[in-house]
Description:
Layout: H1 2-11, E1 15-20, E2 26-36, E3 40-45, E4 50-55, E5 59-63
Antiparallel strand pairs: 1-2, 1-5, 2-3, 3-4
Amino acid sequence: MKGILSRALLEKTPIEIIYMSQNGILTQRFIEVIEINEATIKAFCLLRGKKRTFKIESILSAAVPRKRGNVKHAN
C-alpha cells in the first residue's frame, strides 16, 4: 500500500482509493497525494475538490486508475 502511495507522490499521478470512513461508509476516491506521514496521508481529493487527510489504515485499496477510451487500433 505505502509503495503505491509513495509512487503517486513522487510521480505526481492521481490514484484511486477505496476508503472506509470513521462511521463505516465505503467511498471510492480519486486523489493526488501531497504528503505521507506515519499514519496519514494528505491529498487533494478530486471528488470533493479539496485537500483531505486520510488515515492509511482506513485505505482498503489503492491503485493507478485504468485509462478508458485510450485504446489505439493498429491500421
